[in-house]
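Why do we care about 3D structure at all? Because function follows from shape, and shape follows, mostly, from sequence. That is the central idea of this module. The next example makes it concrete: a single protein chain, its amino acid sequence, and then its structure expressed as tokens.
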Amino acid sequence: MTTHRTGTRKEWLAARLELLQAEKELTRRGDELARRRQELPWVRIDKEYRFETDEGRASLPDLFRGNSQLLVYHFMFGPDYTAGCPSCSAIADGFNGFVVHLANHDVTLSAVSRAPLAKLQAYKRRMGWTFPWASSFGSDFNRDFSVGFTEEQQREGGIEYNYRREPAWREGDGEGTAAEFASMSGTDAATYIRERPGVSAFVLEDGVVYHAYSAYARGVDGLWGMYQWLDRAPKGRNETVAWWRRHDEYDKR
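And the structure:
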């Protein structure tokens, strides 16, 4: 016998119509937030960044691939990882299929990670992905956009992520989910969390690149196609444990 509240179809419809009004308000609020994102001032980028891509060495303008807009997913895959972060991998499973549709809207979507290109290419083949993925190994790109940090910053409390400063790393901080994900990525917890997830938006006009927007942590929730489905499932996200698995590992449980 279920412990969840039950009712008649008439009671369900009344509750559903009440919820519908709240959903419409959220939709309108989302439209307003999107407008405000697009109204943020653009910051000119004069620094020259270098990346390694499947096509060879590339500049930041090269990552636009002929479009005027670039969305970068900051994928957690550090130089010392042996595999990509499992939660980033779940996000990438979602956006892999619609990169072509974004391109038809003058938007290029590319992942960027600090791991050397050969590691990214091998993992990309393993996962069956086709989206562009650039290596920023040896570049300041991840550091400048607050998704890559040094051991010294971690030890001394110098990490500023998601627009706030974090306390210094202490022994035991990497227990739980961080330790599990670190193990799945072939590294230790401290090394694992020196990489962070996020999304950044850039625009290219008259040969000049501007930074338009960045979001981190829960600010990336809306990009998880999986979450949008789970939020409509009867039991929601059901995250009592860290349950993300790479799709090629799913049948091994």
